[in-house]
Design goal:
The complex is a heterodimer of chains A (108) and B (117). Chain A has 108 residues and is mainly beta. Chain B is an all-beta fold. Helix content of chain B is 0%, strand content 53%. The chains are: A mainly beta (108), B mainly beta (117). The interface between A and B is medium-sized, with 24 and 22 residues.
Chain lengths: 108, 117
């Protein structure tokens, strides 16, 4: 099972960034999203499609339907610049926990 | 404060062995499944292994089955990853991660493992 993300997304500060994650019938699975800044460990920013962990700004939201899950970041800030990964659990896959290919968010 | 601290990363020759440890603090360790996730230099994230809170279930990515063993000592709040027959492609930062249902909720800072002659 594979998850495909665009290699990069560019957006100006204050605009809205949408990072997609494509997978076969991904809408039937729970999708989680991670933010990784250079030299740092990943941080969970969205889980179970659209739930935000405590401490994650309301500017971050998620959706999931059909073959595409989306992480949306409104009012993008320079500090949001990072790599973003989607992830699902798939019981009949190797690996069981599948990460997307990753998207570099570039804030212009 | 919830903390995960990995140790044991090192440079090892191909075919060699290494054991990683992860010390957990700030939560009831045996209430949570724990995982190892790795990241090769300049590459994406890759799940390696998971162990249930009471150690009654373990799972591995196919490429490490038979070579890596995950274990835990709940009395010492410590997670382990025993790695044998190491290959160049095992070179990566290895993160210790607390699992929440099927999401990787809390991450350590990582331990670097380099397999090279």
């Amino acid at each position: 099972y594979g998850l495909t993300q665009p290699p990069s997304v560019s957006v100006a500060p204050g605009q809205t960034a949408r990072i997609t994650c494509g997978g076969d019938d991904i809408g039937s699975k729970s999708v989680h999203w991670y933010q990784q800044k250079p030299g740092q460990a990943p941080v969970l920013v969205m889980y179970f499609d659209d739930d935000r962990p405590s401490g994650i700004p309301e500017r971050f939201s998620g959706s999931n339907s059909g073959n595409t899950a989306t992480l949306t970041i409104t009012r993008v800030e320079v500090g949001d610049e990072a790599d973003y990964y989607c992830q699902v659990w798939h019981r009949r896959s190797d690996p069981l926990y599948v990460f997307g290919t990753g998207t570099n968010l570039n804030v212009l | 404060e919830v903390q995960l601290m990995e140790s044991g990363g090192d440079l090892v020759q191909p075919g060699g062995s290494l054991r990683l440890s992860c010390a957990a603090a700030g939560f009831t360790f045996n209430d949570y499944a724990m995982s190892w996730v790795r990241q090769a230099p300049g590459k994406g994230l890759e799940w390696v292994s998971t162990i249930a809170g009471n150690s009654d279930d373990t799972s591995y990515i196919g490429s490490v089955k038979g070579r890596f063993t995950i274990s835990r000592d709940n009395s010492k709040n410590t997670l382990f990853l025993q790695m044998k027959s190491l290959r160049a492609e095992d070179t990566a930062i290895y993160y210790c991660v607390r699992l929440r249902q099927f999401a990787f909720e809390i991450w350590g800072q990582g331990a670097m493992v380099t397999v090279s002659s």
